[in-house]
């Protein structure tokens, strides 16, 4: 019986998602190269007198497959770019890449991320097939009510670091 | 104990990314059909846009009778390939391989006859 409880506790602990940190992040922090993964853009509201009404994320190179999950109250816009030279992916040719995803609160007063809240914006992607150890850097811009815009584009030790995800090698 | 297994199963399902595999709208020639040896092309049309696809045709003994590995046309909804001329009567096998817009690759074959 004791064993069952311990196992149950462990399961629950794993299932609880990582807590919202004070920064805009992309979760999980590590992903497997070339894998099909769900990435969450996690946006905490860091002001106590206004809410977040827009989130703008720039994708690094290598995102050729992406779809987004609908977030109630938010409009999602996905940007693609035609490639000058098509990329070869396992013998197939790919001629455009995803460059940017922008989420906008439909009705700011009602749909904003309010003080004390955070919101996950989920994406389903094929992770770029880059070398293990590569860091994917997502430059992000968070807009608050009344216009303040925070650029999450800094170095890891800066005040507003860009969200980073570490790419690991696929298991052979 | 059963509860734990269930919890793990749910966790696995929840973390799987979205996968949408586009279906086939039509094959030409149709699977199992018999058509004239004078046909010049074989093609597959999908129900939705794809990223890229290939198509090859072989005899029952495995000799390739298509020229190249096909090209994608019709606003990325069709892959078609030309056949060599002077093909013999008999059974042929066409195989397509498609890179879906979600990044997954699917391959399938069908047979038809020339008379």
Features:
heterodimer; A: 172 residues; mainly beta; Immunoglobulin-like; five-stranded antiparallel β-sheet; four-stranded antiparallel β-sheet; 2 helices; globular; B: 115 residues; four-stranded mixed β-sheet
Task: Provide structural commentary.
The complex is a heterodimer of chains A (172) and B (115). Chain A is built from two helices and twelve strands; from the N terminus they run H-E-E-E-E-E-E-E-H-E-E-E-E-E. Chain A has 172 residues and is mainly beta. Chain A has one domain (21-167): Immunoglobulin-like (Sandwich), CATH 2.60.40. The N and C termini of chain A lie far apart (38 Å). With 115 residues, chain B is mainly β. Chain B has one domain (22-114): Immunoglobulin-like (Sandwich), CATH 2.60.40.1220. Chain B has one helix spanning 2-15, and strands at residues 24-28, 34-35, 41-46, 52-59, 66-73, 78-83, 90-99, 105-114. Residues 1-15 of chain B have low confidence and may be disordered. The radius of gyration of chain B is 19 Å and the shape is elongated. In chain B, a hairpin with a 4-residue loop joins strand 5 and strand 6 (78-83). The interface between A and B is medium-sized, with 23 and 22 residues.
């Amino acid at each position: 019986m004791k064993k069952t409880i311990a196992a149950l506790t462990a399961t629950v602990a794993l299932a609880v998602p990582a807590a919202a940190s004070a920064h805009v992040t992309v979760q999980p922090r590590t992903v497997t190269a070339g894998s099909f993964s769900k990435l969450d853009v996690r946006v905490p509201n860091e002001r106590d007198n206004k809410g977040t009404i827009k989130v703008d994320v720039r994708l690094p190179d290598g995102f050729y497959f992406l779809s987004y999950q609908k977030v109630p109250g938010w409009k999602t816009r996905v940007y693609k770019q035609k490639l000058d030279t098509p990329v070869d992916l396992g013998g197939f040719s790919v001629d455009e890449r995803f460059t940017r995803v922008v989420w906008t609160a439909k009705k700011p007063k009602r749909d904003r991320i309010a003080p004390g809240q955070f919101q996950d914006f989920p994406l389903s992607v094929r992770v770029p097939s880059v070398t293990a150890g590569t860091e994917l850097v997502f430059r992000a811009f968070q807009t608050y009510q009344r216009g303040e815009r925070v650029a999450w584009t800094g170095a890891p030790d800066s005040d507003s670091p860009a969200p980073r995800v570490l790419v690991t090698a696929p298991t052979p | 104990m059963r509860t734990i297994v269930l919890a793990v199963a749910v966790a696995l399902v929840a973390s799987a990314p979205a996968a949408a595999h586009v279906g086939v709208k039509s094959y030409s020639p149709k699977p199992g059909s018999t058509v004239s040896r004078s046909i010049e092309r074989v093609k597959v049309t999908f129900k939705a846009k794809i990223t890229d696809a290939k198509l090859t045709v072989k005899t029952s003994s495995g000799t390739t009778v298509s020229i190249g590995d096909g090209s994608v046309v019709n606003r990325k909804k069709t892959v078609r390939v030309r056949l060599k001329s002077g093909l013999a009567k008999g059974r042929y096998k066409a195989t397509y391989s498609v890179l879906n817009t979600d990044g997954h690759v699917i391959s399938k074959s069908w047979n038809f006859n020339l008379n």
